[in-house]
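Justification of computing resources. Each target in the renewal requires a structure prediction run like the one illustrated here; the chain below, 241 residues long, is used simply to show the kind of job we budget for.
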Amino acid sequence: MAARERGTVNAKDPVIQLRDVAKRYRGRDVLAAVDLDVAAGDVVGLIGPNGCGKTTILRIVAGLVQPTRGAVRIGGRRLAEEPGGVPPGLGVLFDPPGLLPHLTGFQNLSLLASLRRTIDDETVKDWIRRLGLDPEDNRRVGTYSQGMLQRLGLAQALMESPRILLLDEPTNALDPGSVDLVAELIREQQARGAAILVASHHLEEVARVCTRVYKVIEGRLVPADREDLERRRPVGEDPRR
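Resulting structure tokens:
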């Protein structure tokens, strides 16, 4: 059975397009031949155990990793043509979030916002509060718990209303209430037309927000079927447990 579909998908005009993308690390084929289209308003889930290649796909789309073979297009342009090789209008969360440990949470996000200058400090503070943190907290990020780091990383990814949103394990270390908030925020980003890729090994959290879900198996994308989506355990976990 094909991957589950919800909502409207404009497959004719993808924001993200991968064609025959492969990646080889140290003699090992991590990705074999990945084809993927993600349109505005799409939320595409990538599921699989650690090391299967799902994070590599996100890093290739972000311009952080060069594919060994294949073409990546963002908004119809080859990624290699973008200045610095980084797509414009990009919001990313990788595991762990890339934050400067000697700065406060607000200082980290304010510094990042100053690079593009599309939002002001009040917007930064609003997003920090939205994720349940205090922008006036003077503690350095290096003292934060894992859950606090994850929430700050989410605020950083979302605060500039990106047209492309890449989320790697977005609910890692979060409590159930925060997991629900992440789902709500993803739906909000979808409603305004963002193209979203979510990588996770948790089937349930991906299935609840995604318009399409793929398993990453032997470096290729395989549409998840209903049985996969109805499972309630992480990918790779022993089903007898």
